[in-house]
Structures are given as structure tokens and as C-alpha cells.
Amino acid sequence: MSPDNCIMTYTMNSGIKGSVVFTSKQISEWIESYRVGSRYVTTVNRDYFGLNPELVADFKIHNYFSEQRIQLETIPPENPKNDLQVDSTYSKAETIMQIECKCGESYIIRSAYKKLKWSCKKCNSIVFLDRKKGLVDTEEGKAWYMTNRYFVDRNALGR
To answer: CA geometry: angle at 40 spanning 19 and 38, to 5°?
Structure first.
């Protein structure tokens, strides 16, 4: 931001916030429009920008020397390598489910979400989460048990 430009942050009566970059001359014109209550129209870069002061609840002008701008410039940028590590940690969060179908098929699946029902990959029948049985031990770790070999009470809260 050059010393000649200022950022004006405004809040509409509806609570919507906005900000726009004005020159010092545009700021003076806006303040005059706000004082007399007339609509303000100007160009910002190549776009027209209009603001009705009757709909603006408040505004603040941040110039080159504002404390807020200095604080924002002194905050060091975050290390993007750490961000990638956090993203990969969250993407690995999976739920393991043990599926046992009445057709005889038995297998383990991984899903990003805990499902209440699934379909068998062999016969396409629906299998349901047995909350009463809860987590079962598998070769891949603890898994939620889903079956259609017996009646599963879907309203049971055996979490």
C-alpha cells in the first residue's frame, strides 16, 4: 500500500462489512458525502464504486501509518510446509468398518465418515451399523461392525 492510498473499512446498517482502497482525495470526498448525506460514486481501479452514507453505520480509515497496518506487516508468514503436514494429518482420519453380509461376503472398508448403512459390494444388499456390538477387533485395528445377517435395531444408542 502506497502512502497516497488508504483502506477504508465500513459496516453497513445490515451488519455487512466491506473494505475499499481509496486515494487521499477520494477519502476527503467520501467524508464530505458522509457529512452531507449524499450518495458517493467514484472509480476504484477500473470499476465504479458507489456507497450510500445513509446505509453505512460506521467506517474507519487505515492509512500507511496506522498501527493496525504496522502490526499486520510484522506478523511473519506461516510456514507452508507445516500447513501441508496438518492437512495430511486430517486427510488420514478414516473410519474402519467390518462388513458381513448374508451372502457370505466379509470384508473391511475405510471411509472418511462413519456410515449408518452401506451396500455389499458382492450382492448390493444393504448392511446396517450394529451400534450394540460397537467396535470389533480386526487385522486393521478397531472397526465398526455392519451386517444384515440378523435384525439390527437402528434406533439403538449403544455408542
So the answer is: 130
Residue 81 backbone dihedrals phi, psi, to 5 degrees: -65, -40
- What the block records as the C-alpha cell of 37 is 448525506
Q: How far apart are CA 112 and CA 122, in angstroms?
A: 21
pTM of the model: 0.42
Burial class, 61, CB count within 10 angstroms (exposed 0-12 / middle 13-18 / buried 19+): middle
Any bridge partners for residue 21, and if so which? 7
Euclidean distance between CA atoms 63 and 69, whole angstroms: 8
Q: Which region, left, alpha or beta, applies to residue 134 given φ > 0 means left and ψ of -120 to 50 means alpha?
A: left
Pairing of strands 117-119, 126-129: antiparallel
**Predicted confidence (pLDDT) per residue in 106-140, tens digit:** 999 988 878 888 889 989 999 998 888 888 998 88
C-alpha span between 28 and 44 (Å, rounded): 15
Q: How high is the pLDDT of residue 82?
A: 54
